[in-house]
Amino acid sequence: MIKCHVCSFECEDGATLCPVCGAELLIEPEEATEKEEETIIENPVLAASVEDVVTAEIYRDILSENSIPFTCESDGGSMKIVFGGGFVAEDIYVDESNLEKAQELYEEVLNSEPEFFEEEEGE
Prior knowledge:
By secondary structure, the protein is of the alpha+beta class. Helices cover 30% and strands 16% of the residues. The chain has a domain at 39-112: Alpha-Beta Plaits (2-Layer Sandwich), CATH 3.30.70. The protein contains 3 helices and 5 strands. A 3-stranded antiparallel β-sheet has the order 3-5-4, with helices on one face. Helix 2 packs across helix 3 (99-112). The protein is globular and about 40 Å long.
């Protein structure tokens, strides 16, 4: 079984996508976990409280791509699913020295998301 790094669902061996959240499954999740455990944040501060599982995954990926160490309040960096299928907001922390850049990146993520429910001009 492969554990999804986004929602923690136990997926079948050989699966490439999580059937619950649609995230691409990590081929070697043990190595990714080891890398996360090595990171020590001296002065953690809240960079963002993300309520959307997809946005949280994108934001974590962007932080990693920009070499900004982070930690999440949830278990293993995954979102928690509560009764009824809702998600609990994920608090993402960075070191105080990286806060400004991390918040800029979060704003970019939020501004790049398409607006699916825009009202039509006549309404």
